Amino acid sequence: MNLLISKNQKLNSLKYWALIPLFLVACKKEPEIKEQKVDTVTTIEKPIDSLSTILKTEKESNQNIVTVDASKMPIRLNLEITNPNDQIILRLENLNQTKIKGYLKTEKPMNIRFNQIRMPDNTFDGPFSQTIEYDTKQKGEYWLILAKSNMADGTPVGKFFVKIE
């Protein structure tokens, strides 16, 4: 009889010993993984003052035309290119200052730049880079044409932030 009781006790204790690793595995908590954001991403996601008001947007073939009031500088916009052959034309209406300064910040590495600037007399200048500093000798409507650089690699598709002052 003692032999039968000790066998039952051994079986019960073996059952409990077998359950211990299961509890340890079930209770093991995976470490929490936090995404670290690159500085440019946090800059894009934070509201910077208030983003500028877009007066009008139009689409003509591969050109997305965004019209803003340049008399309310600085201009801050979050924009996106979804097709590799698209261009964004930023129309600055009522520009009356002597210099334009602008820069682009991308969420991820992206092939985009200020390709050209169109002056009120329909003359063009460019190409530029992801920054522009240009003396404006005329008052009126200026166009900043944003698109990929054919001399560089990388995708021109993605979200980016534009600031013009």
If you had to describe this structure to a student in words, what would you say it looks like?
This protein has two helices and ten strands, in the order ααββββββββββ. By secondary structure, the chain is α+β, with helices and mostly antiparallel strands. It has a six-stranded mixed β-sheet with strand order 1-2-4-9-6-7, with no helix packed on it. Strands 3-10-5-8 form a four-stranded antiparallel β-sheet. The longest helix has 26 residues. The N and C termini lie far apart (95 Å).
Helix and strand topology:
Elements: H1 2-27, H2 39-45, E1 54-60, E2 63-69, E3 75-81, E4 87-95, E5 99-106, E6 113-118, E7 124-125, E8 131-135, E9 140-147, E10 158-164
Strand order of the largest sheet: 1-2-4-9-6-7
Low-confidence stretches: 39-50
Q: Largest sheet, if any?
A: 6 strands, mixed
The structural domain count equals 1
CATH classification class: Mainly Beta
Write the H/E string, N to C.
HHEEEEEEEEEE
* N-to-C CA distance: 95 Å
Helix content: 10-25%
Structural class: alpha+beta
Primary descriptors:
165 residues, Jelly Rolls, 6-stranded mixed sheet, 4-stranded antiparallel sheet, 2 helices, 10 strands
